């Protein structure tokens, strides 16, 4: 009963904000979902606790890949990528993430380019969930036309 009372108090506030920001459909969908959830008694502590645990495990806002960069010498850098445990897609993007990070380092340091010396992908079979992993090595090049850059 208190949840329905709170929704009745919050509904006019959301409606007023929606009219000012022209996001009425999003607010209406959210309020409709909240009303449906309250009718199905999904605001019980068991359901809320389970949803929080699922959110903590899945963590949709965390980056898909954890990247560590190790400088091997003046020109070479090694990238080690590790995918998060529970994902919805992104299994084939390891090389794209690898090259994008190599390019960002080259551009930030003012380098002319880079060569991919080695790249390999695999699966680390840890329990309870396996991880996709990738590792690669890049050699950076300075500009021959403008050696001072």
TrEMBL record:
It comes from the Bacteria. This is Lipoprotein. It comes from Aromatoleum petrolei.
